[in-house]
Amino acid sequence: xxxTATASTTPVFSVEGLWKVFGPKAGRVPADPELAAxxxxxxxxxxxxxxAVRDVSFDVRKGEVFVVMGLSGSGKSTLVRCLTRLIExxxxxxxxxxxxxxxxxxxxxxxxxxxxxxxxxxxxxLLPHRxxxxxxxxxxxxxxxxxxxxxxxAAEVVAKVGLEGMERRRPAQLSGGQRQRVGLARALAVDPxxxxxxxxxxxxxPLIRRDMQEEVVRLHRDEGxxxxxxxxxxQEALKLGDRIALxxxxxxxxxxxxxEIVGSPADDYVREFVRDVPREQVLTVxxxxxxxxxxxxxxxxxxxxxxxxxxxxxEAVSRAGSTARVLDKGxxxxxxxxxxxxxVVAGLSDxxxxxxxxxxxxxxxxxxxxxxxxxxxxxxxxxx
Length: 384
Ligand SMILES: Nc1ncnc2c1ncn2[C@@H]1O[C@H](COP(=O)(O)OP(=O)(O)OP(=O)(O)O)[C@@H](O)[C@H]1O
Description:
Elements: E1 11-22, H1 28-31, H2 33-36, H3 40-47, E2 50-61, E3 65-70, H4 76-83, E4 91-96, E5 99-100, H5 106-116, E6 117-120, H6 132-142, H7 147-160, H8 176-189, E7 194-198, H9 206-223, E8 226-231, H10 234-240, E9 243-248, E10 251-256, H11 258-263, H12 268-273, H13 279-282, H14 295-299, E11 303-304, H15 310-320, E12 324-328, E13 331-336, H16 338-345, H17 351-360, H18 366-369
Parallel strand pairs: 3-8, 3-9, 6-7, 7-8, 11-12
Antiparallel strand pairs: 1-2, 1-4, 4-5, 9-10, 12-13
This protein binds adenosine-5'-triphosphate.
């Protein structure tokens, strides 16, 4: 998504050294370095325990979509349920807006789940005998809001998620996608600070799934809502995530933007995970950019934005038949040419190989290149 620049760095959730261990005397596992270092099979045979979340630390920043991705059993649901203590953590700290979640009493926890961090589940959790409107109003009802006011508020949210006209239907009279919209509307109705999604779209057929993903993108763009989104689907993660935490065996193997995960995988596991991703659709032109070689090159050719994908730049370069300029607020940051863009598609563009290529050609390595001041040019043109 393009919204990273607008997300501030204030954390909504701040998680440090979090563990969730299932099994007998679970608490001894994080406390004992020898047990904590065992692999899943070793831990199970020594202790009978499973570390569903092992020593995980991250922040969820205000306004971002934070995706937790990983294969089945990697610990995604357990991790996200620990955030509001739907599952009780074994060790570590969790704060929401600086407040210690593990120190909250029952009343405070209830308020956290009702007002501050609402969960949207895969299986909707709708009440079958209630209408759409009353399902959406449910969260407001348990907050103690009066009937007229909550129905008015619910009607607004129902319209917002595209269910206008269906207010009086019951869940059984809706399609899967429509039911998921009701679930989403119910979470939104309480106007939570953060929305937590547990694989909400995995049961939907692909077209409806895409609709719902776009709904999430729209909500994020229009309302700047903070979201934590669990998925095992890489495409979904790349599409929705400002940042992605990739989990394996309870740990986070890499945390980064889609571009960082696809462009600089942390290890072979991540590399294998992202192998089939069309790189040009995820990596931005910054990956392929070099300083303009002349004032003329900085002043001519089609313009692209710094967050344009390589694929968009390829289109611009092909149409124009020339190098494209990367423009940010009228300033030329650098240029991209067809050869560098093709390198990205071919997977030859990671920092290591570019540095090696540059050294072979006797040119400065990328890190040094950034020191060079490219010729700048100002223009009023609108980049693609
Ligand atoms: N209540 C439990 N008791 C024992 N083990 C559990 C319990 N809940 C989860 N686990 C184990 O913890 C690990 C992580 O499970 P979790 O459900 O968090 O994974 P997930 O990534 O969300 O998987 P999925 O995508 O299949 O939902 C798994 O090995 C699972 O078997």
